[in-house]
Amino acid sequence: MADNERNNTDNSIDEQPPAFIEATGALLRVCQILGMILVLTLMLLTVTHVSGRYLFKHPLIGVVEISSLMVLTLVFLTGPYNFLIDRHIKVDMILERLSVKTRIIIEFFMHCLALITACLAFWGTLRQSEMMIHSGQTTDILRIPYYPFYYVTTFGWALCVVAILTRMLKFFIQLKAVQK
């Protein structure tokens, strides 16, 4: 869908969006900012590690472990915001040819499927998080426990559920505006 068309349908929301949409956007923006801070930290860590390895022959210990955990955290903190603002990867060659009303209805049902998937993923990672606390598994070198990162993943799935519900609410509002 062309950006102009997408913006036109996104702007069909009333002047004052519901408080739930505003609050969700604010929460997910904070998570996005935390994710950007993690990217910066990850870049600095990598530069320090590479510099230590090649210039001083002393690399940082455990950088691969830390980087892996940071990327996991980064994905689950930033993904829901990108979903909320509709900047995720999608193929909409067929949808862009449909009327606005039909497109909104189809996207709503696709979001229903995404909601079911996100709820199942949330439930599964929550159960896995609880098992990780009891197992006591840690990273090999630095002995960082895995369970907090499982909870970050669970939190990320919860944020996805909220983002999907928010988008679905926006679809209802858009559909109401189209029907006027």
Element order: H for helix, E for strand = HHHHH
Can you count the beta strands?
0
Strand percent estimate = under 5%
Major sheet details: none
Mean pLDDT: 87
Number of helices: 5
Shape: elongated
Query: Taking Cα atoms only, what radius of gyration do you get, to the nearest Å?
Result: 20 Å
* Classification by helices and strands: mainly alpha
List the uncertain runs: 1-14
Number of domains: 1
- What share of the residues lie within helices? over 70%
- State the distance separating the first and last CA atoms: 23 Å
Structure write-up:
The protein contains five helices and no strands. The chain has one domain (about 20-180). Helix 2 (about 20-55) packs antiparallel against helix 3 and helix 4 (about 100-135) packs antiparallel against helix 5 (about 145-180). The protein is elongated. The model is unreliable at about 1-15 (pLDDT under 50). The chain is an all-alpha fold and about 180 residues long. It has helices spanning about 5-10, 20-55, 65-85, 100-135, 145-180. Helix content is about 75%, strand content about 0%.
